[in-house]
């Protein structure tokens, strides 16, 4: 058993190393924000991967740049680049991997700061991706560099990755890398994803998701004689009416034992993501009126988030049963149902090694009791679990989840420093052992 005094001394040495790197952490975060990796369509992926490669190479890591050719969104104009840096220790041991996505969502309106300026105000760094999740990426790099500086002959291996497309499903990033074996349990044993879940919380997993498309069909006719046609939009209106009458009230009654945050997400939910009917929208430059037609088609995309107590089959059949009820009550009602994609819920056990290591890191660095949470939406843990078959994986990082995708997104500098300490303590815990 390792002596408690030795652990305290090691943590104090790491804390000093990270405090000495505070200015470097700030500059690194600003540099990452200033590379506008907007997705879609997937801008500047190569630029940020090359930046990270230079940084990690100078710290003694072996670096690979990997393009996920043929994945959704990959093209010559917008190739899906990923970066993995690995540092082998002086003797055998486990591998701890820090995975961060490099892409950010559109900026949107309402900013008081330059979305890609990395400006500092009142102890915060502002910019798109500041908390989601370039601040977490920077904190993980500082944590790893501080650890290696103290113990270059450590047992095992450390990996840092910057991966593509998490904001659009992760198929050109972690999913592809997992398919190539980069997240196999034989290669990597522990994974920390520095998503912005608040510095005192450990995210064990996420709810499930099913996206599906519903189409209703009608018959086109002249708009002045709608009785000669069959309006697909009215059919879709009946679908929405049935959802309001039966499905949404039913979802409210389904509650989970998973510690999902916020509390409203501890129930099953469904969002109507989009709705289109009739003629396609005209070119923005067109100033005329649409033609007078009864719409013969309508299309809806639904985003259903479900609980670990539910099955994918149950979620799917629930929607199909609703459509069949409408069909039995409406003459001429015809529909298509197509499942677009589905990811099952996942939750790492609370006694898993990476959970316990980060718990101890939070207690030591922050002096508080850590909280276990589950994310309302999915993130790249889904691919590490489902494809990589690697279960010892959590999300932990600086930043406030509610700020993600918002105008004036920011990450607190003190929070990054504190989170870097937690990551470094956990790294020492997992590699050197308790």
Q: How is this structure best described in words?
A:
It contains 10 helices and 16 strands. The protein has helices at about 5-20, 20-35, 45-60, 130-150, 175-180, 230-250, 310-330, 355-365, 380-385, 415-430; strands spanning about 60-65, 80-90, 90-100, 120, 125, 155-165, 190-195, 200-205, 210-215, 270-275, 295-305, 335-345, 345, 370-375, 395, 410. It folds into 2 domains: about 5-205 and about 345-430, Aminopeptidase, CATH 3.40.630.10; about 210-280 and about 290-345, 2-Layer Sandwich (Alpha-Beta Plaits), CATH 3.30.70. It has about 425 residues and is of the alpha/beta class. Strands 1-2-6-3-7-15 form a 6-stranded mixed sheet. A 4-stranded antiparallel sheet has the order 10-11-9-12, covered by helices on one side. The longest helix is centred in the N-terminal third of the chain and has 21 residues, at about 130-150.
């Amino acid at each position: 058993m390792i002596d408690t005094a030795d652990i305290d001394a090691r943590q104090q040495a790491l804390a000093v190393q990270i405090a000495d790197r505070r200015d470097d952490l700030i500059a690194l975060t600003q540099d990452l924000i200033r590379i506008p990796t907007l997705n879609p369509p997937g801008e500047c992926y190569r630029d940020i991967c090359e930046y990270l490669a230079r940084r990690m190479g100078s710290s003694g890591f072996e670096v690979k740049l990997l393009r996920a050719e043929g994945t959704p969104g990959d093209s010559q104009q917008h190739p899906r680049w990923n970066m993995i840096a690995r540092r082998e220790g002086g003797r055998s041991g486990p591998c701890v991997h820090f995975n961060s996505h490099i892409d950010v969502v559109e900026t949107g309106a309402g900013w008081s700061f330059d979305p890609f300026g990395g400006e500092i105000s009142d102890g915060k760094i502002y910019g798109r991706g500041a908390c989601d999740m370039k601040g977490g990426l920077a904190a993980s790099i500082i944590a790893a560099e501080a650890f290696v500086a103290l113990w270059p002959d450590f047992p095992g291996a450390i990996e840092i990755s910057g991966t593509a497309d998490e904001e659009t499903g992760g198929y050109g990033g972690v999913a592809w890398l997992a398919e190539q074996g980069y997240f196999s349990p034989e290669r990597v044993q522990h994974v920390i994803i520095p998503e912005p879940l608040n510095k005192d919380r450990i995210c064990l997993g996420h709810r499930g998701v099913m996206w599906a498309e519903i189409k209703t069909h009608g018959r086109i006719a002249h708009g002045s004689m709608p009785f000669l046609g069959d309006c697909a939009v009215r059919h879709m209106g009946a679908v929405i009416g049935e959802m309001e009458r039966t499905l949404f009230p039913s979802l409210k009654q389904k509650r989970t034992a998973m510690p999902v945050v916020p509390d409203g997400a501890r129930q099953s939910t469904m969002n109507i993501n989009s709705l289109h009917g009739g003629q396609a929208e005209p070119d923005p430059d067109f100033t005329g009126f649409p033609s007078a037609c009864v719409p013969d088609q309508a299309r809806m995309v639904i985003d259903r988030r479900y609980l670990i107590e539910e099955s994918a089959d149950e979620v799917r059949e629930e929607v199909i049963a609703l459509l069949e009820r409408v069909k039995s009550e409406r003459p001429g009602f015809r529909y298509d149902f197509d499942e677009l994609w589905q990811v099952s819920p996942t939750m790492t056990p609370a006694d898993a090694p990476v959970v316990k290591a980060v718990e101890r890191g939070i207690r030591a660095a922050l002096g508080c009791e850590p909280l276990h949470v589950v994310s309302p939406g999915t993130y790249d843990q889904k691919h590490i679990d489902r494809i990589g078959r690697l279960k010892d994986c959590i999300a932990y990082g600086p930043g406030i989840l509610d700020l993600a995708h918002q105008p004036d997104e920011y990450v607190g500098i003190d929070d990054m420093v504190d989170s870097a300490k937690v990551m470094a303590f956990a790294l020492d815990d997992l590699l050197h052992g308790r």
